[in-house]
Amino acid sequence: MKEISIVKADARSVIGAKLNQIALGYMRYPLAGSKEERIVNRTFVRLWKWSGNRFSHQYAFEAKMGEQTLGIITCYPIPLLNRLAWPTFKILFSYRKLALIGYNLLNLKDLYSTLTLKEGHDDEYHIGTLAALPESRGLGVGSMLMKFAEEQASLQGYHKCSLTVKKENHRALKLYERLGYQITGEINKPAFSLFRMAKKLEK
């Protein structure tokens, strides 16, 4: 079996946008302003290719075996993540325009939940999305990507990593707990409920 390596994500990757969607689950619909998969996919492909938004390849790393991408992780300091909120919305609006507004007017609780989401604190390095292809399960891809993100945090002078996870995602919750993450709070919104988790890194 070929060795798995972690590399900087490529804007041309055909799987990056798909993996971001897998990570987000139903939370991707208010962002794309649609539940039509064709539209959602095109929206996230655009976000992946363009720089300066939270779902960009710019902040992502890929786990690869040879030429095949098995999983991705996006990670950044919380202050940077907060600064990316408005540019991300501007890109979405410039692409989806009235359709984005129309969808969210009909789904106000989704819009409210997404816009008021506070994911972490300024002293944290945050894992925004993490996903692996179903066929890569059992290879330890998720754990490898998490460890890589923690190394990036340490290199940038951060001593704590954070993430959010949907309460119903028991598989992911077990993985994070096994890796040393602890629940530090809850985010309960009309459209979804999340656990906020964090881990102190060794200095």
CATH A-level architecture: 3-Layer(aba) Sandwich
CATH topology: Aminopeptidase
Mean pLDDT: 90
Counting H and I runs of at least 4 residues, what is the number of helices?
A: 8
Query: How much of the polypeptide forms β-strand, as a percent range?
Result: 25-35%
Biggest sheet, spatial arrangement of strands: 1-2-3-4-5-7-6
Number of domains: 1
Total strands: 7
Contiguous low-pLDDT stretches (5 residues minimum) are none
The H/E string reads EHHHEEHHHEHEHEE
Organism: Paenibacillus puldeungensis
Pfam families: Acetyltransf_1
Keywords: Acyltransferase, Transferase
EC number: 2.3.1.-
List the helices and strands and how they pair.
Elements: E1 4-8, H1 16-24, H2 28-32, H3 37-49, E2 60-65, E3 68-77, H4 78-96, H5 98-106, H6 108-115, E4 125-132, H7 141-155, E5 160-166, H8 170-178, E6 182-188, E7 193-200
Parallel strand pairs: 4-5
Antiparallel strand pairs: 1-2, 2-3, 3-4, 5-7, 6-7
Helix pairs in contact: 1-3
Pfam families: Acetyltransf_1 (PF00583)
Keywords: Acyltransferase, Transferase
GO molecular function, one term: acyltransferase activity
